[in-house]
């Protein structure tokens, strides 16, 4: 789904980060988002490699790190998948997490689209938190 409002977690978190919505704040948020979108694929590749190697300890650590980065910006889909991968790794059931990297790639792509929408709305002066129906 690509309609605005499909990622209320992202919109709500960006709104939480705003105080005045001035240019400096917007630029700061854009840097945070850019950093996440740049680092997340590397973090995912590290997680994927740990899962493929069957290294539960490293996989749990990598999943935990990506979960935290995603949760910090309201990317709940990614954070949830990472939490599940972390639980599986901690339980020694890493084989059940083999599909997680593919799901995470899709979730990260969706998050990138949502960030583009939210930042576009922010730059345009539109409200970033959807109003209740």
Outline the fold blueprint.
Blueprint: H1 8-17, H2 23-53, H3 56-72, H4 76-90, H5 100-124
**What is the structural class?**
mainly alpha
Sequence of secondary-structure elements = HHHHH
Q: How large a portion of the residues is in β-strands, by DSSP E?
A: under 5%
- Please mark out the parts with pLDDT under 50 across 5 or more consecutive residues, or reply none: 1-6
What is Rg? 16 Å
Beta-strand segment tally: 0
The main sheet comes to: none
* Count of individual domains: 1
Euclidean distance between termini CA atoms:
18 Å
Question: Would you tell me the overall average pLDDT?
Answer: 90
**Which word captures the global form?**
elongated
Q: How many helical stretches? A: 5
The CATH class label is Mainly Alpha
Q: Based on the structure given, which CATH architecture is correct? A: Up-down Bundle
Helical residues, percent = over 70%
What CATH calls the topology is Four Helix Bundle (Hemerythrin (Met), subunit A)
InterPro entries: HPT_dom_sf, Sig_transdc_His_kin_Hpt_dom
Keywords: Phosphoprotein
Organism: Planobispora rosea
Protein name: HPt domain-containing protein
């Amino acid at each position: 789904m690509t309609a605005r409002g499909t990622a209320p977690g992202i919109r709500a978190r960006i709104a939480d980060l705003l105080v005045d919505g001035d240019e400096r704040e917007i630029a700061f948020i854009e840097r945070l988002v850019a950093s996440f979108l740049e680092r997340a694929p590397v973090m995912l590749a590290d997680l994927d490699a740990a899962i493929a190697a069957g290294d539960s300890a490293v996989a749990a650590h990598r999943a935990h790190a990506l979960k935290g980065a995603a949760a910090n910006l309201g990317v709940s889909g990614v954070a949830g998948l990472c939490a599940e991968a972390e639980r599986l790794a901690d339980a020694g059931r890493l084989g059940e997490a083999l599909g997680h990297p593919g799901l995470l790639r899709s979730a990260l792509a969706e998050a990138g689209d949502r960030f583009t929408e939210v930042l576009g709305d922010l730059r345009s002066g539109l409200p970033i938190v959807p109003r209740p129906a």
